[in-house]
Amino acid sequence: MESSVKKKIEHYCAYxxxxxxxxxxxxxxxxxxxxxxxxxxxxxxDKNFLSETRFTEAYVxxxxxxxxxxxxxxxxxxxxxxxxxxxxxxxxNQISDLDYNNKLKKLCVKQVGLSDxxxxxxxxxxxxxxxxxxxxxxxxxxxxxxxxx
Length: 149
Description:
The chain is mostly helical and about 150 residues long. The chain is built from nine helices and no strands. It has helices at about 5-15, 20-30, 35-45, 50-65, 70-80, 85-90, 95-115, 120-130, 135-145. The N and C termini lie far apart (about 65 Å).
């Protein structure tokens, strides 16, 4: 293994949690392909620079807390990164149902409070907006029905 590439890829992984796909793409940009790239990935896993479980947990926490994403969007994005179903479900289980519902309620209250539209238009706007962020439509509708009467 080339020491300059090793140092760069270690720094890349130490700076922020990464998934295997991101690391492989970075290695390809650095001119490392195939079995050599796999060797670097194995090295990073052995030295604990790379952990898909750790990445998945950090990703779920960040997207839920900071970006206000729902589970559907989080799952879709993680599957695009070739994360295993076990890691996805394990990380999503760390979000309690109470926190999930409270976050959804807060987002609904915020959107309802900012709008001056009719009830039907408001419902459609909130459902569309939050479903694009990956929230389950039935949960959104339940929250809206409690807020708008």
